[in-house]
Amino acid sequence: MMNIKSTWASLALCIALAGCGGGGDGPAVRAESQSIDVAAVPAQELGGAVSLRASASSGLPVSYSSATPTVCTVSAAGQVTTLGGGTCELVLRQDGNADHAPAIPVTVQFEVTVDPRQTLLFAPAPTLTLGGTATVLASSSAGLPVVYSSLTPEVCSVNAQGLVGNLGVGTCTISAGQPGDARYQAAEAVTISLDVVIPPGITVPGAPAGVTVRLDSQPGQVSVAVTGTDSGGAPITAYQVRSQPARVAVTVPSLPASVSCDGDCAGLSFTISAVNALGEGPAPRSPR
């Protein structure tokens, strides 16, 4: 006959053992605690290199993340890149495994300082040809945008992007500046000079041909015209009109043109010359 009391006792013991980790699929595993150890990081200057030295007591790899991505970033290997001034905050984790419980996250903080001084540097000078364009490039050590200006406006112009346009012969001098911001002081201006290269065969314009000067329909004015002008290989940019006696001296962008005599035009003779980027050409005298 079956011993019911013994059977129930055995069943109770089996349940108790299962609840304590015995039986089932095998013995229960108790996860061990672990901690993260990392060296403190001193203040760093912007642009400096930092490598975190962190380890978990379990020997498991530590993961890194940045809580301040505008100030600093960190790689999977713990290499820190500073991006701006302020407090860099990094979070270190070890999520555990079958044998180890997750470690309590550790936070590392350090200050990123910014040198308020900045310097400007021009790239090598490009070639600027007569009547042509070239691009200059200056950079700030702070990474701030640079402002360009021409110190020789009669020779060249420059726009905000550093595109230089030639306006005449000589040496083109461009200045670069940076006014600073809340973190950086204004930079000391730097300059770059570009000697204007004259292509072979370019000369000043020839003397205008077929010069005529007639009294205009308006009193006190003459109408000036030419039939043609050798440009010298470069575009004509203006004409100079002068009188004898020396009462009239004007520059006009093109001909024909009406010119004021500053009084009575009778008895005046005129000389007409053409101008290109290389300079002013000869001027034949018109009849009275």
Secondary structure elements and their pairing?
Blueprint: H1 4-19, E1 36-38, E2 44-45, E3 49-51, E4 54-56, E5 63-66, E6 72-74, E7 79-82, E8 86-93, E9 106-113, E10 120-122, E11 128-129, E12 133-135, E13 138-140, E14 147-150, E15 156-158, E16 163-166, E17 171-178, E18 187-197, E19 212-215, E20 221-225, E21 236-244, E22 249-252, E23 257-260, E24 269-276, E25 279-280
Parallel strand pairs: 2-9, 11-18
Antiparallel strand pairs: 1-4, 3-7, 5-8, 6-7, 8-9, 10-13, 12-16, 14-17, 15-16, 17-18, 19-20, 20-23, 21-22, 21-24, 24-25
Give the radius of gyration: 42 Å
- CATH first level of the largest domain: Mainly Beta
Identify the quaternary structure here: single chain
Distance between the termini: 154 Å
Sheet of most strands: 4 strands, mixed
- The helix fraction, in percent, is under 10%
SS class: mainly beta
What is the chain-wise order of helices and strands?
HEEEEEEEEEEEEEEEEEEEEEEEEE
**Overall outline:** rod-shaped
CATH architecture name of the largest domain? Sandwich
Brief descriptors of the model:
mainly beta; Immunoglobulin-like; four-stranded mixed β-sheet; 1 helix; disordered N terminus
Can you offer a commentary on this structure?
With 288 residues, the protein is mainly beta. It has 3 domains: 40-114, Immunoglobulin-like, CATH 2.60.40.1080; 120-197, Immunoglobulin-like (Sandwich); 212-280, Sandwich (Immunoglobulin-like). The chain has 1 helix and 25 strands. It has one helix at residues 4-19; strands spanning 36-38, 44-45, 49-51, 54-56, 63-66, 72-74, 79-82, 86-93, 106-113, 120-122, 128-129, 133-135, 138-140, 147-150, 156-158, 163-166, 171-178, 187-197, 212-215, 221-225, 236-244, 249-252, 257-260, 269-276, 279-280. The longest helix is centred in the first third of the chain and has 16 residues, at 4-19. It is rod-shaped, with a radius of gyration of 42 Å.
